[in-house]
Design goal:
The structure is a single chain. The chain is an alpha+beta fold and 411 residues long. The protein has four domains: 2-54, no CATH class; 56-218, Alpha-Beta Plaits; 224-279, Orthogonal Bundle (DNA polymerase, domain 1); 296-397, 2-Layer Sandwich (Dna Ligase, domain 1). 40% of the residues lie in helices and 21% in strands. It is built from 16 helices and twelve strands. It has helices at residues 2-16, 36-54, 66-74, 100-103, 113-119, 130-145, 173-188, 200-207, 220-229, 240-248, 254-258, 262-269, 272-279, 310-330, 363-366, 370-375; strands at residues 58-63, 83-86, 95-98, 124-126, 151-155, 158-162, 192-197, 215-217, 296-307, 333-344, 349-360, 384-396. The strands form three sheets. The protein has a five-stranded mixed beta sheet with strand order 5-6-1-7-8. It is globular, with a radius of gyration of 25 Å. The N and C termini lie far apart (70 Å).
């Protein structure tokens, strides 16, 4: 594992390292181990890798069936029953979350509620209560921060915790994870699962292994074996399309992935290829970031019925643009990139984007761009079941254009 890490980074080093007094690349002699600067680089990289493996302690805590569990906590009649948080099964809504009792019937998030009702006719449907979920989430995050300031929320129901510097107070990250999960249950009557390892990727994968109420630790000495046996769909960034392509290329497990050189992975899969090359070798030095910067603001809706009526779609998108304007104003943000999301009747989903030189802050900025984006889809000819808009490449409102004073305006 270390050899691959050093090899990749040394290649990078030879490409970017320059001499002190010119912009010419530093020439590495064939007997490169005699090169003083490269020796120092190797020592640095080896130290970085060893510190990452031996000293970092990362916990990923993921609440078990969060939305559904809160509903069961608040409503006695829901407990022990197949519960689905989502829209009316007679409507076009989708499953937002479901209890473990419902999952036994093959029900999962994002499934149409109508299909969920067919799979489990006795299921109980209840609408989501986001205000309540946000309230409980804030209490969970507060518990996390009792143990460490390094808490990186990923969503309402999961977060990374870096407990590396807990010292003598909590020498075992595994025991600490158990203690945190126990405190959550005692205070909120909700269960959680935790994964513990020396990097974020492994910790997140580990938290999903023994759900619900699972505690799984992946130490450095067993990490490579674990990664070799991991199904390729479990790797971060591998969605359905990428998984299909990988399987066509003979990549079914981590072991298969590890046989590929980084250049081939980047050629076939783009920039994610380099990341996959690292994580399959147990290399992921991404820090836990307490002040995680939001990267986009969006809004989407499932239509009450499939439609190819352009006038209807334009009205719906105008409402979404107003929703985004409110969110942008609330967060004092704007953005340079607008993305249109369209899901057709057959559930095929596409996105179309445009990036401007000036930031968008309002619905008036967004609306003129929609006809052009819609024209690049099959809107008007194919029936559509969902549309969405997202603003990304966010910036502060200080980026608002201002009229500069011309010289003759001064007294």
């Amino acid at each position: 594992m270390l050899l691959h890490y050093l090899k990749k980074n040394v290649l990078h080093f030879t490409q970017v390292c320059h001499s002190n007094d010119s912009n010419e690349p530093l020439l590495i002699c064939p007997d490169f181990t005699n090169n003083c600067r490269l020796k120092h680089s190797l020592m640095f990289l080896e130290g970085r890798f060893q510190r990452m493996c031996s000293t970092r302690k990362i916990i990923h805590i993921d609440m078990d069936a969060f939305f559904a569990s809160i509903e069961q906590k608040d409503h006695v009649l829901f407990r022990g029953k197949p519960l689905i948080v989502g829209g009316n099964p007679q409507s076009r809504g989708v499953v937002a979350a479901c209890s473990y009792e419902a999952r036994k019937f093959g029900i999962h998030s994002a499934m149409p509620c109508s299909k969920a009702a067919r799979l489990c006719p006795e299921a109980i449907f209840t609408p989501p209560r986001m205000d309540r979920y946000v309230e409980i989430s804030s209490k969970i995050m507060a518990i996390f921060r009792q143990y460490t300031a390094f808490v990186e929320p990923l969503s309402l129901d999961e977060a990374f915790l870096d407990v590396t510097n807990m010292g003598e107070k909590h020498p075992s990250a595994t025991l600490l994870a158990k203690q945190i999960c126990r405190q959550i249950f005692e205070e909120l009557q909700l269960t959680a699962s935790a994964g513990i390892s020396y990097n974020k990727f492994l910790a997140k994968v580990a938290s999903d292994i023994n759900k619900p109420q699972g505690i799984t630790t992946i130490p450095p000495e067993t990490a490579q074996h674990f990664l070799d046996t991991l199904p390729i769909r479990k790797f971060f960034g591998v969605g359905q399309v990428t998984e299909k392509k990988m399987r066509q290329l003979g990549i079914n497990t981590g072991f298969d992935l590890r046989q590929w050189e980084v250049e081939r992975l980047v050629f076939h899969f783009g920039k994610i290829g380099s990341f996959l090359y690292d994580i399959v070798r147990g290399i992921d030095d991404r820090p836990v970031e307490p002040m995680r910067v939001r990267k986009s603001i969006g809004s989407e809706t499932t239509l009450p019925y499939d439609t190819d009526n352009l006038d209807e779609l334009r009205k719906i998108l105008a409402e979404l643009a107003k929703d985004i304007e409110k969110s942008l104003h609330k967060k004092n943000k704007g953005g340079y990139t607008l993305t249109l999301k369209v899901r057709y009747k057959n559930f095929t989903t596409i996105t179309r984007s445009i990036t401007l030189k000036t930031a968008m802050f309002s619905a008036d900025d967004i609306l003129p761009l929609l006809p052009g984006l819609l024209a690049t889809t099959y809107a008007g000819t194919e029936k559509i079941r969902l549309v969405g808009l997202t603003i990304s490449k966010l910036t502060g409102r200080t980026a608002l254009p201002r009229q500069l004073k011309l010289p003759f305006m001064y007294g």
